[in-house]
Specification:
Elements lengths: L2 H10 L1 H4 L18 H25 L5 H21 L4 H21 L15 H21 L6 H48 L4 H12 L17 H30 L6 H6 L3 H21 L7 H10 L1
Helix pairs in contact: 4-8, 5-7, 5-11, 6-7, 7-9, 8-9, 9-11
Length: 318
């Protein structure tokens, strides 16, 4: 087998081979008749697994130099990145949809605050918006004033305080519902820009990004390094360099492209909306979703070992 064939074989079968998982056939009720077709398929699978094991076992005895391992990791990562960004199935559902949810939540949270970038007071565009801002600013004082009254009984007191809270919630819902149409229009444009970035702009640059990431993170230059994957102790450096490159590409492409398309639409979007979509939080949330999906993909393909604490941190964010 050529080095390229061994490399592909090691990556595809890593879940079985590198973790020392041995294939075993368990016969249930040996007296039962089996299907010749299934027996043939089983025999073929077992033969393939044994061939994989033999190939990797034979390759394991050859100690590669750091340069050779770095080249092997770079080729493997470049190929997997191309698969992820160019041919990823259900791309919109798996990546664009969760990004849309996160950004919508971030947008509404920013709208509920009275200040925007630079601590400048927001312009009031809707009656519900102005009253909501005033009520939310003084709600603690209003509640304290109400609690200072003498009530006929505890039920009246509880109903009064609940009415104050309900008034604030109703104003909030009414205000955000007015902002939703514009958000939806801009989100449609942003999603289109992001889709072009991930599936058109990025693929021609992935080979170079893979090369730089592997070189800078030194995943092939550690005492325990192997050529066919990045081990967990290198994940932190791998992640830092990959996300630096990814964020750089995304900001430069999406920022300019989004503003250009917003202008081309011929619609007067509110200043706060345009500012929001050039805020670092938008790019940070987008990068987080894409990279989490990518790391899971690389892990399942056997190229990237994810540390246990990485899984714990993700669970804590859910």
């Amino acid at each position: 087998m050529s080095d390229g064939q061994k490399e592909a074989l090691a990556i595809q079968a890593l879940g079985l081979l590198n973790e020392q998982v041995q294939a075993r056939i368990v016969h249930y009720k040996g007296e039962m008749e089996t299907s010749p077709e299934l027996d043939a398929i089983t025999a073929q699978v077992v033969a393939q697994l044994r061939a994989m094991q033999a190939a990797v076992a034979g390759d394991a005895g050859v100690q590669k130099t750091p340069e050779e391992m770095e080249e092997q990791q770079t080729r493997a990562l470049g190929g997997l990145l191309q698969r992820f960004f160019s041919g990823h199935t259900q791309f919109a559902t798996r990546i664009l949809k969760p990004i849309g949810k996160k950004i919508a939540k971030l947008f509404f949270e920013s709208e509920l605050h009275e200040k925007s970038k630079g601590d400048k007071d927001k312009v009031i565009h809707h009656a519900e918006q102005g009253v909501y801002y005033v009520l939310s600013r003084y709600k603690n004082r209003l509640r304290a004033e109400l609690e200072g009254f003498e009530f006929q009984n505890a039920d009246v007191r509880a109903s009064t305080l609940e009415l104050l809270a309900k008034t604030e919630r109703d104003l909030q819902v009414a205000f955000l519902s007015r902002r939703s149409p514009e958000l939806n229009r801009v989100m449609t444009i942003y999603t289109a820009v992001l889709g072009d970035f991930l599936q058109k702009h990025l693929p021609p640059r992935l080979e170079q990004m893979a090369k730089v990431t592997i070189r800078v993170c030194k995943a092939a230059r550690r005492p325990n390094s192997v050529g066919y994957k990045v081990l967990s102790d290198a994940f932190g450096d791998f992640r830092a360099e990959w996300e630096r490159l990814f964020m750089q590409q995304m900001v430069f492409f999406c920022g300019d492209e989004l503003l250009e398309r917003l202008t081309q639409e011929g619609e007067a979007f509110q200043e706060e909306t345009v500012k929001f979509f050039t805020d670092p939080h938008v790019f940070s949330e987008t990068c987080e979703v894409v990279c989490e999906q990518l790391y899971d993909f690389l892990c399942l393909e056997g190229f990237l070992d994810l540390p246990v604490d990485w899984r714990v941190s993700l669970s804590g964010n859910d």
